[in-house]
Amino acid sequence: MPQTHPAIDQTAPTTAAPAPPTELSLEERLAFINAAMTVRLDEAAIAYEVNTAHIPTEPVDLADIIVGPLDTGPAPLPELYPTPVAALLQRAHHRLLTGGWCSGALVDEDGARCMLGAIRIEARGDSGLEDSAAAVLLDAIRRKFGDDVHSVPSFNDAHSSSRIPMRMLDQAAGLADTRGL
C-alpha cells in the first residue's frame, strides 16, 4: 500500500519577515552616546580612585593657587608721541578713557569731560597748545566726516557714546605727530 503524505496546506498564513530596523534620529543617537560615555566616565573615575587610594595627599588651599588681579588703578599713559600737540591729544584721549566722557558740558557732575574739556585740562593753561590741539582735532574730524562739522564741541555733543569721539582724539594725535606738531 502506498503511503500517502498529507498535502501541504497552501492557505495557512506564513510568518512575515521582520521589518528592517528604522534608522535612529540624531537626538536618539546622541542620547545613546551620552549614556555610553557617562558609563565609561563613571568606570574611569572609580578606577582612578582605586588606583590612587594609596597615595597620601595634603589638602590644597585654593587661595594659594587662584590669585585675582591686583587693583593698581588705571594703566599708565605710554609716551608714544614726542611732539607737544600730539602728546597733548594723547593725554586727552587717556583722560577720557580713565575719567569718562560726557556730552553737553565741558565737565559733568561726575568729573567726566568732553573732548574739548579733556584737551583744556591736559593743556595745563597753555592756550596756544590748546588751540593747536583743537585745530588738529577739528581737521581730523573734518577729514573723516566732511566739512559740515562746525566745531569740536558740536561734534562731541552729536554723539551718544564715547566710541567715535575717543577714536577721533586718537587719530588726531597720530595726525599731529605726522605733522610734527
In short:
The chain is mainly alpha-helical and 181 residues long.
Which key features would you list for this structure?
mainly alpha, 0% strand, 2 domains, 181 residues, 54% helix
Please indicate the count of domains: 2
Report the principal-axis shape.
elongated
Tell me the β content: under 5%
Series of secondary-structure elements, N-terminal to C-terminal: HHHHHHH
Spans of at least 5 consecutive residues with low confidence: none
Secondary structure tally: strands = 0
Radius of gyration: 39 Å
Major sheet attributes: none
**Average pLDDT across residues?**
84
Task: Provide a count of the helices.
Answer: 7
Distance between the termini: 132 Å
Structural class: mainly alpha
User: Helicity range of the residues?
Assistant: 40-55%
Describe the fold and architecture.
The protein has helices at about 25-50, 60-65, 85-100, 115-125, 125-145, 150-155, 165-180. The mean pLDDT is about 85. The longest helix has 27 residues, at about 25-50. With about 180 residues, the protein is mainly alpha-helical. The protein has two domains: about 25-55; about 85-180, no CATH class. It has seven helices and no strands.
